[in-house]
Amino acid sequence: MNKFLLLSLVALFGASAGHAEPSRTNLLDRVQSCEAILQEFVSRPAIGPSREAWQRAKAVLILNQFKAGFIFGLKDGYGVIMVKKPDGRWSLPVLVNAGEASLGFQLGATSVESVFIITDEATPRMLFNNRFNIGVDAKAVAGPKAAETERVNAEILKTPMLAYTKSTGLYAGATVKAGHISRNDKANFVLYNTRYTLPELLYSDWVQPIPEVQPLMNLVQRLAP
């Protein structure tokens, strides 16, 4: 490993450990980037969720992550979660943190974009207790794609989290991973100018949508009415 790459990785980990609180403009960019991620998945049947998956959606989680490391790896990122209310309307997009620690020999960097169709009502509520681990607290499997024409396995569709992921860049190594999603109430206080936390933002109508999040809400409403 050359000196420049080593210094770059040191700088990356240092920045991740001590970054400043993001501005409201940055938080709006996060929501809009999640909308763009979902738009891309929807426009590409080879990677996007099937119609049957959307029909079962009780919530949707969109993540944007970056992973890099040498010996010790770090995946950091953010996302939004939305839930479907009993009357069929979708909630505000609520910001969450997305992280993963890994251990093993590894070298490289990659960006990872993911969409999770959540098919039960219990999984989003795990965030009431701050965080949950994908694949541990909530079982996750690769979901059926829109491009697939064969009969969709009903048992797969019953899995709490149907995963759709794409990555870019290079990353190699054997790792032990523990991915987690955690609530980010501080970010939502700034984004929505409120003191309500994740449970109220997801399940109540006490906070009205701001114009910048309406396109994402409209898109999800169209996909899973």
Oligomer: single chain
> Which segments are poorly predicted (pLDDT under 50) over 5 or more consecutive residues?
1-18, 101-106, 171-178
Sheet with most strands = 6 strands, mixed
The count of strands amounts to: 6
In total, how many domains does the architecture comprise?
1
The gyration radius over C-alpha positions equals 18 Å
DSSP strand (E) fraction?
25-35%
Q: Share of helix among residues?
A: 25-40%
Distance between the termini: 51 Å
What is the arithmetic mean of pLDDT? 81
String of helices and strands: HHHEEHEEHEEHHH
Principal-axes geometry comes out as: globular
Keywords, please?
225 residues; alpha+beta; globular; 6-stranded mixed sheet
Describe the model.
The protein has 225 residues and is an alpha+beta fold. The chain has one domain (3-223). It is built from 8 helices and 6 strands. The chain has helices spanning 3-18, 24-43, 51-55, 122-125, 154-157, 185-192, 198-203, 214-223; strands spanning 59-83, 94-118, 131-133, 140-142, 161-173, 176-183. Strands 1, 2, 3, 4, 5 and 6 form a 6-stranded mixed sheet that branches. The longest helix is centred in the first third of the chain and has 20 residues, at 24-43. The protein is globular. Mean pLDDT is 81; it is low at 1-18, 101-106 and 171-178.
